[in-house]
Design a protein that fits this description.
0% strand, 2 domains, flat, 12 helices, mainly alpha, single chain
């Protein structure tokens, strides 16, 4: 009799992030595009303009209430528009800044804010409906279900945070001369949550769609990976600091470069007391910090690129490093141009879009460094 071979023990196999059905993979990459509010073209152009347009056009306070379903229908008749305009007239922005605004002018800023809110609903539906469908069909593994739930929760949180931010601009200020604007802290939280949502979505999508390879255990590659992580964190922080620049209109304080006026360090850098208030509330300090962070970011990217030249990298990884440097240089140029030209809306929106492009390149590089083949 032929002896029966004994079964050899196998190592436990980790559950894959997702079962290999194409639709769920495509969905996650689509989420990476839509949430942060991008599709491969939206990523760098359309959606970032939607995010920044209400602030840049001073239209974010034109819709003075929030209803998930009711506000999806815009005013249509003259009476409905006049009623909407009368509601706006009860709040500080009209009383202090726009007391001579006409109804056609109000319609413009109202539609800017309306399009922003409607696009947010489109983003939410682009997440929740496909996720529910794939969940029902059993295309999501247990780990991916947790990831999808977290991302959908972030989408809902982002919408609620947006309204919480708008409410801060509708409140009466203690001093009558205070300019009506949303809280720069809440604006930064709103932007920060959008960046986190975008980063998590894009990272998950890239993890699913790009083939995984074991990272070689070489000191140079490990150092490059560490540098890439640090550079990405710096880019994220720089983008977040832009919310304080926008919230305080700090881009209009010193419109010169590289000096701020006649000085490298302006006299009013620490004008507020206590000193820590200057970091988040003094427009001069906020612009100064954003300059320093921007210069530090492009310097870090350049150093990362030069260090990577010493290491043999796959073609796609090399492309990611080069793209990161190119976008960083472009973003610095956009920032300086926006400053020198006194923050024109189209250029400022492009600069804000560039921050997302730069963050995307950094995330792509980090993803590639996890997959450097032997």
């Amino acid at each position: 009799a032929v002896p029966t071979p004994r079964a050899t023990p196998r190592e436990p196999v980790r559950a894959p992030l997702v079962v290999p059905q194409g639709p769920s993979k495509s969905h996650l990459l689509g989420c990476a595009a839509n949430s942060s509010h991008f599709s491969s073209v939206d990523l760098l152009t359309v959606r970032p303009v939607h995010i920044s347009a209400p602030r840049l056009t001073e239209s974010g306070l034109s819709m003075v209430d929030w209803h998930l379903v009711k506000e999806m229908k815009p005013p249509r008749t003259q009476q409905e528009w006049e009623a909407e305009f009368q509601k706006y007239q009860q709040f500080p922005e009209f009383k202090i800044l726009n007391h001579d605004m006409t109804l056609p002018e109000f319609k413009f800023i109202w539609y800017m804010e309306y399009s922003h809110r409607m696009w947010g609903r489109v983003v939410g539906l682009a997440y929740i409906l496909p996720a529910a469908y794939f969940w029902h069909r059993g295309w999501l593994s247990r780990p991916l279900k947790g990831c999808v739930l977290a991302l959908c929760g972030l989408v809902c949180f982002q919408g609620l945070l947006g309204w919480y931010m708008v409410k801060s601009g509708l409140e009466e200020k203690p001093d009558s001369y205070d300019i009506p604007r949303v809280s720069q802290y809440r604006l930064a939280a709103h932007l920060g949550s959008a960046l986190v949502l975008y980063s998590a979505s894009l990272w998950t999508g890239l993890s699913l769609l790009l083939p995984q390879h074991k990272l070689p255990e070489t000191k140079q590659l490990l150092r490059l990976k560490q540098y890439a992580h640090g550079t990405t964190a710096l880019i994220f922080l720089t983008a977040l600091s832009g919310a304080f620049v926008a919230g305080l209109d700090a881009g209009l304080v010193y419109n010169s470069f590289p000096k701020m006026g006649e000085r490298w360090i302006p006299d009013d850098l620490l004008a507020f007391s206590p000193v820590l208030r200057n970091i988040f509330e003094n427009p001069t300090t906020v612009q100064f910090d954003h300059r320093i962070l921007g210069i530090a970011s492009v310097t870090a990217v350049t150093a990362l690129y030069l260090f990577s030249r010493k290491i043999p990298l796959p073609r796609r990884t090399r492309m990611a490093v080069t793209s990161l440097l190119a976008v960083a240089c472009m973003q610095v140029g956009l920032g300086i141009s926006t400053l020198l030209l006194y923050v024109p809306t189209p250029l400022a929106a492009t600069h804000q879009s560039g921050s997302l492009a730069l963050l995307s390149m950094a995330l792509w590089l980090m993803s590639e460094l996890r997959r450097v083949p032997k």
